[in-house]
């Protein structure tokens, strides 16, 4: 195992013995389970694939979105609690290709104007299910030009909710 103090930047790292966040670059098969993360200026993940984040409490991430992805597949973000994350939670880049993403069962407390999920340009096989969002916006699908994201039973209290699935044809 690899130990790091200021984050993982080597895509060849296969295991981590200590909590070494942020994870930057093209890390693969990262599983973060049952943890509490609070008070970090930067985001936690940038550009990773095969990410599973489950049963965590993540609070007060201030300078960047918690998760930033460019091209991503096999992402699962489930059963977490997010609060006071000022730049949003899950943000896929404007030209991102997103596939196999499941975001379900999360409880989210957002600032007004903050977004829970911002989807990328091309989306396939992706779903949000049963997320409870207080404030902000649940799903921003404005960048999608090809494909769709399926939303099922997401609830937004006190914010703007985009429950509709955006369907687009290729241009």
Please characterize this protein's 3D structure.
It is built from no helices and 18 strands. With 171 residues, the protein is mostly beta strands. Strands 1-4-7-10-13-16 form a 6-stranded parallel sheet, with no helix packed on it. It is globular and about 35 Å long. The termini are far apart.
Explain briefly what this protein structure is.
The chain is mainly β and 171 residues long.
Write the layout of secondary structure elements.
Elements: E1 23-24, E2 31-33, E3 36-40, E4 45-46, E5 52-54, E6 57-61, E7 67-69, E8 72-78, E9 81-83, E10 90-92, E11 97-104, E12 107-109, E13 115-118, E14 122-129, E15 132-134, E16 137-140, E17 146-152, E18 155-157
Parallel strand pairs: 1-4, 2-5, 3-6, 4-7, 5-8, 6-9, 7-10, 8-11, 9-12, 10-13, 11-14, 12-15, 13-16, 14-17, 15-18
Rg over CA atoms: 15 Å
List low-pLDDT spans: 1-8, 14-18, 163-171
Main pleated sheet: 6 strands, parallel
Work out the helicity level.
under 10%
Structural class: mainly beta
How many β-strands, per DSSP?
A: 18
Indicate the mean pLDDT: 79
The H/E string reads: EEEEEEEEEEEEEEEEEE
């Amino acid at each position: 195992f690899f130990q790091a103090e200021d984050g993982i930047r080597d895509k060849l790292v296969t295991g981590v013995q200590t909590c070494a966040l942020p994870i930057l670059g093209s890390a693969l098969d990262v599983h973060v389970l049952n943890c509490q993360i609070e008070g970090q200026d930067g985001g936690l993940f940038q550009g990773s694939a095969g990410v599973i984040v489950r049963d965590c409490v993540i609070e007060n991430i201030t300078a960047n979105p918690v998760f930033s992805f460019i091209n991503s597949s096999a992402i699962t973000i489930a059963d977490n609690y997010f609060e006071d994350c000022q730049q949003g939670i899950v943000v896929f880049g404007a030209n991102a290709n997103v596939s196999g993403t499941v975001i379900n069962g999360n409880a989210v407390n957002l600032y007004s104007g903050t977004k829970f999920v911002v989807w990328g340009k091309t989306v396939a096989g992706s779903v949000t299910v049963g997320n409870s969002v207080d404030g902000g916006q649940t799903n921003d699908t404005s960048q999608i030009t090809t494909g769709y994201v399926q939303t099922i039973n997401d609830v937004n209290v006190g914010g703007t909710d985009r429950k509709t699935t955006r369907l687009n044809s290729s241009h």
